Structures are given as C-alpha cells and as structure tokens.
Design the sequence.
C-alpha cells in the first residue's frame, strides 16, 4: 500500500525514513524475495502471487479513487471523505480476507506472512504486522527480510525499544551482506536515534555520525543509482556536528547525477544553492537558483534568493546582486 493511502486513512508512519522491505516491495525494486524450503515445497505459489497482484491492484484502484475525489472536490462535487473512506475500507477488507484465508490453509508460508505484515503495517495495524513478521522469523530464522521488517517495527513503534532495531538490522546484514536496503535502513535509524545508537554501539556523537554515514556509503556501494538512498545520505550532512558542508555538497552532486526527472533535479539544485550559500560560494548559488523554475519550489527559491542578495550586499558586490526572483514556470 502507498504512503498517500496511509495519510488518507489517518494515522502516520514515519515518512522520511527507510522503506519497509517486504515481498511487495521486492517485486518492484529487485530486492531478493525471501526463500525457505517450506515455500519451495508448497504447491500454492500461484495463489500466493495472485494475492500480491490483488494487493497491488487494490492500491492502484484506491489511489485512482482518491485522485478522482480530489478532482471532483475542486470542481465542487465528488464523494464526501466519509463515503470514500468507507469505500476504501471495504476494498482493503477484501484483500485482508484473501491474506487470512491463505494463511489459515498455509500457516507455515513465510512469504505470505511477510507480505501480510506489510499490508497490516500500511493500514496502521503495527501490532498485527509485528505478529506476522515475528512468526515469519520463527518459521525461518535465516530469512533476512523478516529480521529487517522487525527492525522497522522496533525503530518506529512507540512501544518498542530502539536497541532491538539495531539488533534486527545487524542480523539481517549478517544473513545477507549484499543487500543495500538493510544498510540503508540501519543507517537511517542510527542517524535518527543518535543517542540510543551511541549507547548501543558505545560511540560518542561524532563517531555515531561517522557510523551512520559509513552505513549509507555501504548501501550506495551496492545500489549506486538509487536516488532516494543518495538523497537520504545527502540530507544526513545537515545534522552533522560540526557541519560537513563540503561532504554534503559532494553528496548532493552525486544525487543530481541520478535524479529521475526535472522536478527532482530542481529539488537538488535547491539543496546545492543552500550549501553553496553556507560555503560562501555566491556565484555558484546564483547559478543553482537560476536552474530552478518549477512553481513547487517558488517559496524556497524566493527565500534563498533573499539570502543570496543579503550575502552579496555584505561582501560589497551590490552591482552583481540578483534582481527580484525570476519568473517561475507553472508545471
């Protein structure tokens, strides 16, 4: 299920954090599917795959309903939120029943428990998700995806100790050291929970930053063209103490290399301009901002242009000071 769906239904997962690894995600990101001898001997593979397809189809259908509802609402019509929410819940209940019926008949099917756990997490049933993932771990302790998903639960559940997340991510990496997403998830949690990570690994603040950044770099080594991963890594340099602006600049330039479209590229240029301003590289900051024409970044661009003009005035280069922000194209 999609994060947009989560917001619509109410409640929230951690949004800027790492993606949940599950069999649904694996189908779309080349993450290897967890395997067990139980699943290999199970003749129900086609039914299992059909449930994943149904889950994916439901997500697309629901997002379509939401898009239409937004369009109708802007035009003064459309279903009320209560009506649409009920419609969505009925659709989700149908998928939930498919998972439950399958598990009742195949209780030792590890893959379906991983997928069902992710479905439950996406629909705000964290405890239900934990039950499925922990059952998958018990059925197949050598399955790294089960450990990784448990790490996500412990990291972002208010009722769970964060140190358990470090243990689970480390176990996932031990079982499969060639999977980028496991390093990515651990890096993000070490960065987000620096105090807890420092206590767990017996590191001071600077060493904890170093560990998080090293984990990010290992993830990038395994998945060098992953834009989300590269931007997460670049974002981390905003929090380092003391600031490491040159390293952050290099990280954002690498993210720019793999940006998938013009909108994402312009977002990176905003970050490049911000760091160039921090470094006092005013011509470079001006050039970065000139590359930003998307209306979505108009407010940020205006603020940075104001900062740039102030910096130029302070250096006595008023003649080179940029005029009012350039016209932003509507896209």
Sequence:
């Amino acid at each position: 299920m999609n994060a947009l769906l989560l917001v619509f239904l109410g409640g929230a997962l951690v949004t800027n954090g790492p993606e949940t690894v599950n069999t649904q995600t694996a189908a779309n990101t080349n993450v290897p599917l967890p395997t067990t001898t139980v699943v290999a001997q199970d003749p129900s593979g086609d039914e299992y795959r059909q449930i994943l397809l149904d889950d994916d189809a439901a997500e697309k259908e629901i997002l379509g309903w939401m898009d239409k509802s937004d369009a109708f609402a802007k035009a003064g019509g459309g279903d009320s939120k209560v009506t649409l929410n009920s419609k969505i819940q009925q659709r989700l209940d149908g998928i939930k029943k498919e998972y439950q019926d399958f598990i009742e008949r195949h209780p030792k099917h590890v893959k379906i428990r991983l997928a069902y756990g992710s479905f439950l997490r996406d629909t705000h049933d964290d405890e239900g998700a934990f039950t499925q993932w922990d059952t998958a771990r018990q059925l197949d302790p050598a399955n790294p995806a089960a450990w990784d998903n448990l790490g996500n639960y412990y990291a972002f559940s208010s009722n769970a100790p964060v140190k358990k997340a470090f243990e689970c991510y480390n176990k996932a990496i031990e079982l499969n050291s060639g999977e980028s997403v496991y390093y990515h998830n651990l890096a993000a949690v070490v960065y987000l929970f620096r105090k807890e990570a420092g206590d767990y690994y017996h590191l001071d603040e600077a060493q904890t930053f170093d560990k998080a950044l090293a984990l990010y770099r290992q993830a990038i080594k395994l998945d060098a063209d992953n834009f989300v991963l590269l931007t997460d890594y670049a974002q981390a340099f905003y929090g380092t103490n003391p600031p490491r602006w040159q390293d952050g600049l290099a990280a954002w330039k690498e993210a720019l290399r793999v940006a998938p479209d013009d909108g994402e590229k312009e977002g990176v240029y905003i970050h490049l301009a911000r760091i160039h301003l921090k470094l006092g590289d005013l011509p470079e900051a001006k050039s970065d901002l000139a590359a930003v024409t998307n209306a979505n970044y108009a407010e940020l661009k205006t603020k940075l242009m104001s900062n740039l003009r102030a910096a130029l005035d302070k250096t006595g280069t008023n003649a080179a000071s940029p005029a009012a922000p350039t016209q932003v194209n509507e896209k």
